[in-house]
């Protein structure tokens, strides 16, 4: 048992919070999106929240935590929804929210501290030189850029730029290692894969350098279709129109838009599926011509932020905000993450709709993936039991639609169901005692874990509650 009093004394001068209510609040992310993670993680809580104001303080915290053998789980804004930021082994929640400065802006690039909220970052780069991040999650108004790199994957902008793991979408990261004398390292090129989407298990990001794109006053449009597959075909074709600049294309199957997008309900018809689009102003004419030809009905359009008249921006209807809005109306809703491989993606979407119908209402996000436009599925699921959820996953996989399971908190089970050797090797180097965000990398905890056995990994400390 670590001596927390001594640890606190070592951290004198750094902001520490041990009020149980606040520690509990800062120990939670959006894990509860998943009924499975809710059952497993609801009781998880850290011991202390430590809030460094700069990299020097991060180094002091990691050195002290290392000396006392205390776990450290980094936290940006806590909006991750796979339980990535849940401190499974207790210890320190390292709250990076106060490291929130944009430090340099240049043509095509920005350097920032990890805790800056992405909407704030975009506001600064827009004001400075009419630039913005290439991509951001639909939580841009609340989530941090460091948390996005460490825990996210893509989002608004991915129709043009692909995902975070694509070369060029992160330029450079500076990290601090978890050792007796923590080191700072600069990572770029392929080395970025060591810590990108590694949930902070092998280094604390203290600076990010991200590429920027020209900022536009994106026009929000909702396009209605009486038939779901017509909406899917339209969205796919729009994503392939090389001359029309879009930042977001998503489809949501009827009746979900009408039933769940309550603030937009007056514009929607219950029987219509909806395509959510953000289009650049200079592409609007071409977009309107294209949509007219494809017989889409424009049911909502906001050319400027003022036109929204208090409504949320279109991107807050998309990505996991679709699920969030559904959950608010029907708490039994959860979701899945599905890949519909190119070139049969439309057929596969139609097949899954035929097999699962309204139990799994369709929601697709069109993105560039390996240079092709494909729909990534974030279908909603009317949850009944964990067994049925597993069966729905199995049905997808049998039909050739891989699932990235959002009901698992480990890197491996949520993603490729295999060890990421690069991330594991880097953890051996950068966190030899395994103190950073314990429990999230199975390969570290249990090198013999058999993924084929289809058993869920449970971090030892969780077994009682799970
Ligand atoms: P946190 O949740 O605080 O952390 C995420 C992970 O990164 C954790 O493992 C944490 O330990 C680690 N971490 C945080 N900061 C650091 C650091 N400085 N160094 C090392 N590790 C660190 N995600 C998407 O990718 N695309 C989406 O479109 C999207 N939409 C969402 C919509 C909703 C409604 C919700 C609830 C979630 C959504 N997410 C999405 C998930 C999440 O919001 C984003 O990935 C977000 O960028 C996470 O940022 P955060 O600051 O909240 O990170």
From TrEMBL:
Domain FAD-binding PCMH-type stretches: 42-215
Coiled coil residues, start to end: none
InterPro entries: FAD-bd_PCMH (IPR016166), FAD-bd_PCMH-like_sf (IPR036318), FAD-bd_PCMH_sub2 (IPR016169), FAD-linked_Oxase-like_C (IPR016164), Oxid_FAD_bind_N (IPR006094)
GO terms classed as biological process: lactate catabolic process
Name recorded for this polypeptide: FAD/FMN-containing dehydrogenase
Keywords assigned: FAD, Flavoprotein
Cited Pfam families: FAD_binding_4 (PF01565)
Tagged with keyword Glycosyltransferase: no
An example Gene Ontology molecular-function term: D-lactate dehydrogenase (NAD+) activity
Organism: Prosthecomicrobium pneumaticum
